[in-house]
Amino acid sequence: MIASSEVYKIGRIGRTHGIKGEVYFFFDDDVFDRVEAEYLILEIDGILVPFFMEEYRFHGNNSALVKFCDIDTQERARELTNCQVFFPHSLTDYDSDSISYSQLKGFKLTNADDGQIIGIVQGIDDSTINTLIEVMTEDGRKILIPANDDLIEEINIPSRRISIHIPDGLLTL
Fold first, then answer.
1. CB under 8 Å to 103, separation ≥6 — which residues?
2. What percentage of the chain reaches a pLDDT higher than 90?
3. Alpha carbon distance 111, 118 (integer Å)
């Protein structure tokens, strides 16, 4: 079984294309094309399931047409529409200079000024011009912290930790 801590979200499956099982894949990260990846992981009824790609071709900057192995009809492909798509951390090619915000889910967030653990990154809110890191604190509160490169001290990928300078008063809101 694939654990959610082993993957990060890179997009979602859209509608079907044609009658031979192709689907539109809308992605935020093209890591599947940069590294040797034979499969993508889809969330089906809350379970993370690997689907091997037979072929894919880009269809614009943020989408591709994907044909998965053993998905040979429009009906079978339709079952995959609106599924969230994930990618394994273990296959990524990132380092701390090229990591995307979407890959930070599950990382521990610590205060760079005193080393205190703030909480666990639950997600990224990039719906506005100011990207925010959604953090669940150890006492169960959900807080939003600016994802500003000037505030981030260090991203330690092997230990899955982010050290960030927390603006004064932010933790007491």
1. 8, 29, 89, 92, 94
2. 44
3. 7
Q: Please answer whether residues 154 and 110 qualify as being in contact, where contact means their C-beta atoms are separated by less than 8 angstroms.
A: no
Residue positions counted in the chain? 173
The percent of the chain in helix, strand and coil, each rounded to the nearest 5, is: 15, 45, 40
Report the distance separating Cα 22 and Cα 131, nearest Å.
33
DSSP 8-state code for residue 63: E
162 close to 107: Cβ distance less than 8 angstroms: yes
* Structural tokens at position 28: 């935020």
> Average model confidence (pLDDT) for the chain?
88
Q: How confident is the model over 94-117, as a mean pLDDT?
A: 78
What contacts 64, CB < 8 A, 6 or more positions away? Answer: 24, 25, 27, 56, 57, 58
The helix or strand, by DSSP H or E, that contains position 120, with its residue range, turns out to be: strand 117-125
How many whole angstroms separate alpha carbon 47 and alpha carbon 9? 14
What does the pLDDT look like over 107-132, one tens digit per residue? 899 999 888 899 999 888 877 888 88
User: How far is residue 4's CA from residue 84's CA, in Å, rounded to a whole number?
Assistant: 12
Asked if residues 164 and 109 have their Cβ atoms less than 8 Å apart, the reply is yes
Torsion of CA 159, 165, 168, 169, to 10 degrees: -30
Q: So what's the pLDDT on residue 166?
A: 86
